[in-house]
């Protein structure tokens, strides 16, 4: 009978009993040599899977190492460009200092030639009192201060 709700055939118990039994399939046992070949093949497949997984891991490590090397190279290139910029700045600074020194030397040379042409004698060197000759107590300094105040009147 057709069950319209489930859209499939339903059978009564009588109908089920009249069906022939299912056909049995009989398998012959495999020879031992064939079983061993299958086991060897399965072992080889498993080893190949392990080798593949190991190779994938090695590849990931190699890519990671390459990325690290690339980043380090970029970092070193940036450092090199910074150092080159500093070298350029120092060279410019050095060139300016050399130019200023040359100008100062030229000015001193011109001044020396003017002094030589005027035939001026150099001023006598001034001697400065040593620490031993300088007044070292408070009373002496007060006396000097009073003498200076007498000479220079305060307004």
Describe the structure.
With 155 residues, this protein is mainly α. Helices cover 69% and strands 3% of the residues. Strands 1-2 form a two-stranded antiparallel ribbon. A hairpin with a 4-residue loop joins strand 1 and strand 2 (8-9). The radius of gyration is 55 Å and the shape is rod-shaped.
Q: Give the amount of beta strand, in percent.
A: under 5%
How many β strands by DSSP?
2
> What is the alpha-carbon Rg in Å?
55 Å
Q: Order of strands across the widest beta sheet?
A: 1-2
The total count of helices amounts to 3
Helix-strand makeup class? mainly alpha
Compute the separation of the termini in Å: 141 Å
Proportion in helices: 55-70%
Q: H/E series, N to C?
A: EEHHH
As residue ranges, the low-confidence spans are none
Task: Report mean pLDDT, rounded to a whole number.
Answer: 82
Q: Biggest β-sheet, characterized? A: 2 strands, antiparallel
Brief summary of the model shown:
With 155 residues, the chain is mainly α. Helix content is 69%, strand content 3%.
Can you tag this structure with a few keywords?
two-stranded antiparallel ribbon; mainly alpha; 3 helices; 155 residues
Strand and helix layout:
Layout: E1 2-3, E2 8-9, H1 13-18, H2 32-118, H3 138-151
Antiparallel strand pairs: 1-2
């Amino acid at each position: 009978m057709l069950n319209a709700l489930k859209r499939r055939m339903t059978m009564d118990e009588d109908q089920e009993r009249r069906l022939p039994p299912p056909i049995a399939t009989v398998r012959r046992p495999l020879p031992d040599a064939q079983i061993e070949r299958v086991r060897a093949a399965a072992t080889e497949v498993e080893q190949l899977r392990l080798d593949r997984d190991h190779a994938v891991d090695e590849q990931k490590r190699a890519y990671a190492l390459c990325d690290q090397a690339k980043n380090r190279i970029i970092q070193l290139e940036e450092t090199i460009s910074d150092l080159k910029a500093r070298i350029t700045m120092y060279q410019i600074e050095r060139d300016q200092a050399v130019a200023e020194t040359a100008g100062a030397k030229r000015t001193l040379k011109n001044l020396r030639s003017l002094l030589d042409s005027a035939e001026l004698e150099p001023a006598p060197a001034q001697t400065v009192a040593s620490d031993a000759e300088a007044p070292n107590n408070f009373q002496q300094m007060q006396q000097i201060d009073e003498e200076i105040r007498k000479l220079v009147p305060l307004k």
